[in-house]
Design goal:
Number of strands: 13
Strand content: 15-25%
Helix content: 25-40%
Number of helices: 10
Largest sheet: 7 strands, parallel
Structural class: alpha/beta
Shape: globular
Distance between the termini: 41 Å
Strand order of the largest sheet: 3-2-1-4-5-6-11
C-alpha cells in the first residue's frame, strides 16, 4: 500500500460506491470493505478492472478484518459501513447496535493504532425537527427517534471521545437525505429512488402518513464530494459538519414532481410514525465556509439523472 491509499468501509453500498468513485477520480488507491449484506458487487462492478481499487469482503464487527484493512501508511479511513434501515432497527435493534457501535469502535481502534485520520459518516436522522423556516445547523438539538438513529449518534459520541481522549484526527460528516443511481428501490431504499422506480413501472406512489413531512435531498455525487473533502481537510478535524442543499420539499410535492401522466399517488398508514422526523432542512453554512463546498445538482436534474439510469438498467436487464 502507498501513502495515498484510502480505506473505505461500506464501499459496496449506495453512498460508499460513490465515495470510491470520487476517490479514484482524484487518483487515490482505494481498498474497500463490505459484507455485501446491504451493499452489492453490482455497485462496484465499474471498478472491477481498476488497478487502484481493491475489494475485501468482510465485516467491521470483526476486529481482525478491520486491523488488516487499516495499515500504518493508510492515508485516511472513510467509515460508511452501517445498518441503515429505520424499520429494521425498530424490529431488531441489536443488529444496528453491533454494526454501528461495535463496528465503529473496531475502526476507531485500528485508526488509533496506526494514527490514521477518520472521516465518520453520520446521519441527519439524529436531529430533532427543524423550525418552520430555519435550517438545521450542527448545534441543533438531537432527538434520535429509532435505534438506527440512536446507534449512529452513539458511534459519533464514541468517535468524539477518541478525538478528545487520544488526539485521533476525526471528522464527523452528516449528509442529509441522499439519493441517486445505485440506491435501492425497495422499502430499504430512499424515497426519491422508490418513487422514481415505481413511476417507471407504472405503479402508484405510496406516501406514508399525510405527506407533509419534508426532506432536504442531496444528490449522490455532491454527497461523495462532501465526504471526501471533509475527511481530507485539516480545518475539519474535531468538527461536526452537515451537508445539504438548504432547501426542503414535502413528500407530497416530491411525488407530484416525480409522477408522470397516469401515475397514481396514494397515502397509506405509517408503520412507525413515532420514528418519523417531520421536517428536515439543512443549514449547510459551515460546509460552505470551511470547505467551500456547495451542492451542484438540483433536485430536478438529480431526478432526471436517476430516471435515465433506472431506465438504462431496466433495458440491460431485459
Amino acid at each position: 500500500m502507498t501513502a495515498e491509499t484510502v480505506a473505505v468501509t461500506g464501499a459496496a453500498g449506495f453512498i460508499g460506491r460513490w465515495v470510491v468513485d470520487e476517490l479514484l477520480s482524484r487518483n487515490h488507491e482505494v481498498v474497500g470493505l463490505d459484507t455485501l449484506s446491504n451493499g452489492s458487487k453490482r455497485n462496484i462492478e465499474a471498478f472491477r478492472d481498476e488497478p487502484e481499487f481493491t475489494f475485501v469482503e468482510g465485516d467491521v464487527r470483526d476486529r481482525e478484518t478491520v486491523d488488516n484493512l487499516i495499515e500504518e501508511d493508510t492515508r485516511a479511513c472513510l467509515h460508511l459501513a452501517a445498518e441503515i434501515d429505520v424499520q429494521e432497527s425498530l424490529d431488531d435493534p441489536e443488529s444496528h447496535y453491533t454494526t454501528n457501535v461495535t463496528g465503529t469502535q473496531n475502526v476507531l481502534e485500528a485508526c488509533r493504532r496506526t494514527e490514521t485520520p477518520l472521516g465518520l459518516v453520520g446521519t441527519c436522522m439524529i436531529y430533532d425537527m427543524a423550525g418552520s423556516n430555519e435550517g438545521i445547523d450542527e448545534t441543533h438539538p438531537v432527538k434520535p427517534a429509532s435505534p438506527y438513529a440512536g446507534s449512529k449518534l452513539a458511534a459519533e459520541n464514541l468517535a468524539e471521545s477518541y478525538y478528545h481522549g487520544y488526539g485521533l484526527p476525526v471528522t464527523i460528516l452528516r449528509p442529509f437525505n441522499t439519493y441517486g443511481p445505485y440506491q435501492k428501490t425497495g422499502m430499504a431504499g430512499g424515497v426519491v429512488s422508490i418513487f422514481t422506480s415505481r413511476d417507471i413501472q407504472g405503479e402508484p406512489l405510496k406516501i406514508f402518513g399525510d405527506g407533509t413531512q419534508t426532506r432536504d435531498l442531496l444528490y449522490a455525487t455532491d454527497c461523495a464530494r462532501f465526504i471526501v473533502e471533509g475527511t481530507f481537510s485539516d480545518e475539519t478535524v474535531g468538527e461536526v459538519i452537515n451537508a445539504g442543499t438548504g432547501t426542503d420539499v414535502s413528500i407530497n410535492d416530491l411525488a407530484e414532481l416525480i409522477a408522470t401522466d397516469g401515475t397514481e399517488i396514494t397515502h397509506v398508514e405509517h408503520h412507525h410514525p413515532q420514528s418519523e422526523v417531520q421536517k428536515l432542512l439543512c443549514d449547510p453554512t459551515k460546509a460552505k465556509d470551511i470547505l467551500e463546498w456547495e451542492p451542484e445538482v438540483t433536485l430536478e436534474e438529480g431526478v432526471s439523472r436517476l430516471r435515465k439510469w433506472l431506465r438504462e438498467r431496466e433495458e440491460v436487464a431485459k
